[in-house]
Amino acid sequence: MAHEHDQLNRMTLDHCVKCTICETQCPVARVTPLFPGPKFVGPQAERFRDGESVDMSIDYCSSCGICTQACPQGVKIAEMNTQARAVMKEEHMPLRDRLISQTTLMGAMMNPVAPLANAALGNGLVRSLVQATFKVAKDAPMPPAQKQTLAQWLRKRKPSTTPVTRGSVVFFSGCAGGYFEVETSKKSIEVLEHLGYEVLVPKQGCCGLAQQSNGLFDGARRSVMALCDDLLSAGELTIVSSSGSCTGMLKHEAHTILGIDDERLAKVGTRIRDISELLVELYDAGEFDPSQFRETNVTVPYHQPCQVKSQGMGMPAKTLMQLIPGVVVEESGQPCCGIAGTYGLKAEKYAIAQEVGRPVFEMIRATNENLATCDTETCRWQIRKGSGVNTIHPIELVHHALGLGTIPGI
Amino acid sequence: MKKLSADVVVIGGGATGAGVLRDAALRGYATILLDKADLGQGTTGRYHGLLHSGGRYVVSDPHSATECAEENDIITRIQPHCVERTGGLFIVGPDDDPAYAEKFLPAAQATRVPAEEISVAEALRREPRLNPRMQRAFAVQDASVDGWQMVWGAARDAIAHGASVLTYHRVVDIVTDDRRVTAVKAIDEKTGEDVVIDCRFVLNTGGPWAGQIAHLAGCEGVEVVPGRGIMIAMNHRLVNTVVNRCIYPADGDILVPVHTVSIIGTTDVRAVDPDKLEIPRAEVQQMLDAGEVLVPGFRQARAVHAWAGARPLFNDPKAHASDTRHMTRGMSILRHDERDGVHGIISIIGGKLTTYRLMAERMVDAMCEQLGEDRPCVTATTQIDPATAPTYVVTHRLEEREHERSRRAHSHAELPATCDDDHADLDDQVICECELMTRGMITELMAEQPTANFDDLRRQLRLGMGPCQGGFCSMRATGIAVEEKMVDISRATALMRRFLANRWIGLWPIMYGDQVRQTALDNWIFQGMFDLEHLPSDEKEIV
């Protein structure tokens, strides 16, 4: 763990003035006494650690990263905490955490047996057994396995006939976008093609974010570097993704948390764009005309995930959706929906994650009972389960407004 | 007026005094210690926290080197609670004279100071922030020590053996009858009461103040030169091992990880008055430059506090009068019966914190000899902290807070994972967040030492010694003191004001970088919210 970036993140503890702003913003600390709070486990506890680990309670940090964003002094609180937790878990890594961080493996295993997998996931007895054995909460949101993966759809579909006017981009789906949230990926590709891009989708693996947030740094490093090679295999092009948190991993987390200093990561990290970010950039440059949107009269709640907030790009999804005539976007105003990747799946953290998400769920139900928007897959599962409201990626609303498809209920 | 009597009165409550108190008490003498302030408030509390391996002196002062090596071992054994076995490194900087390094290992061997050479790569593996351009590295058994814990440990052990400690008792006279000491007169600074202690013997352990004390007994010309040295505490442990420059002892060549901070030291300049020690800017800059040699980027790290201490150096006619660094570090025992014809008083001058126990042994031996009594010293083999206790490690307080949390979590078997109302449910309220000091710790000590001021509490609990320097904890401590009816509001105001004023002495010399922002925030709190300077308080000067 003694690489230079640990030292750099650690050095930022010197900036802490104890103002407590991070504690007031932490979505976990405000709902549970089990987590001592970001300032406590971050810049305070780090002065006592000496490279050792004695405070298991740091595991209640969900790694949402809100603290780092809130800190007015530039303390890398979340980064420090994630690194300290990795040290702590070196000796206490539960099998469960090794399993649930294998997102590609989960998708690949469930997909061929989708009806069976869905039946099992929907079966209370099976889930109770899983909870007892692996400590995965029986009520935790799970994605429905899909009959068709993104790769299978790409192989079977007819090639796009829209003329290529803007050159080529690489599409990065993320594991969830490849196996579970396949609709979002399909619609993202269709929107990009509609705008005149040739969309290349090279074979691609996992970004390693789930491993990283579970403290499995070596595995995460291998995953993210293999992914960089995958994404660069089509040439050094702009990379577009509709997977909010995985994009953040490539943009900054693999560098700041895993300490990877590799030219390939730098190439990917500087070329990747969140799909809403790309479209807003086009609009700002006068290269995207919003008059092609059809009128869509809907008031839609939007929750920006914590890991999209931390990319420091503002709220392009909101800006984009508001370009659609008739669309009113209401922000959740909440830091996090609670799931934080795999956090809310864990039996001992399930109730905390639900409590963190409660204000999001309530806001969404109060705003629109039929439709909500959110940029990250696991957050959508959490919000769908918690609020009962159909939650889609903002690009799906854009897809609808461009007349490329129809969203039921609008 | 209060009248007391004892066999021995010890004057000066630093490490030496506490060691002497314990030594005499363990030999069966009825002993009372007096100090004009708190225990460990002078030289003992104003040093860098190094428990010497002896490595520093192997070339310059071989006799001290061997003493340090032996005492390091003894202190670690009898007082494990206040020692952290960090280990030490001597590194030869890029521009340091390789000739000195050549002498280091043979000299260590000759003085029986355990030392071995390690590769530069190994030194960097152990301490990644060290200067990668170092030429060589040697590993030694340096440790860090909490001087206040050490002093209080010795004092408490002495009290358990029948001794008494009277802090904030300023000695005003040493009474002699026919050139023989018969009593000591003091004033209780907290109450103003006069105290007279009839005694057979006075042991003067006043350190830099020893000359003033000897004078009270009519012993003139005891010239103790205060060798002023400044130190700076950096906000966190830049290294986890004591790091020394492998050069002939000089300024700014030691970096010691003590508790949560790392301390760079020190300078050595002849001072006039040990009560008026300045912290010159030039010396601060000198320390920061020296830090850069050990740990590149040192200047970017946050300094939290600076202070100056006065070494008690005996004015040895053999050394040049202004060169305090090379006046003897060894201890000098002054037998005033031989020297001044005054019986029943001995002074000790010089020495080092590491050898405090040995100094006490020699001093009490000398007293026994004068009294013609044969009472052997047992301090080296008598445990202070429990014999089974592991040595201190920096993770202790974090681990304690964690254990408290999990104990409380388990005692609330029905505690839901989430609850809206009482977040403090699992914590004993942390009063000093920087040093993880709880409400229970401070109320317990206040109950034991009801007249203590916040600096007295600080030395024992580390209240206000972290990065915020009292910004948040001082107001909490003040509120608790009032709430627990320990003090009235007027004294509470005075206590807080004095505590912050004392913190400021160590803050202004290092007003750069991150600490400026902290000080600005603290200042907004105290001037903006409390208008601290204008709060009504009867007590202008409190002790």
Structure description:
The complex is a heterodimer of chains A (410) and B (543). The longest helix of chain A is centred in the C-terminal third of the chain and has 18 residues, at 350-367. Chain A is globular and about 60 Å long. By secondary structure, chain A is α/β, with parallel strands linked by helices. Helices cover 49% and strands 8% of the residues of chain A. Chain A contains 22 helices and 8 strands. Helices cover 34% and strands 21% of the residues of chain B. In chain B, helix 1 packs parallel to helix 5 (147-160). Chain B has helices spanning 15-26, 62-78, 98-110, 120-126, 147-160, 210-216, 281-294, 336-340, 356-371, 396-411, 439-448, 454-461, 473-483, 489-505, 514-529, and strands at residues 2-5, 8-11, 31-34, 50-51, 83-84, 88-92, 115-118, 136-140, 143-145, 164-166, 169-176, 181-188, 194-198, 201-204, 224-234, 242-245, 254-258, 261-265, 269-270, 303-314, 331-335, 345-350, 430-432, 437-438. Chain B contains 15 helices and 24 strands. Among the domains of chain B are: 84-144 and 226-315, D-Amino Acid Oxidase, subunit A, domain 2 (D-Amino Acid Oxidase, Chain A, domain 2, 2-Layer Sandwich), CATH 3.30.9.10; 428-534, no CATH class. Residues 318-323 of chain B have low confidence and may be disordered. By secondary structure, chain B is an alpha+beta fold.
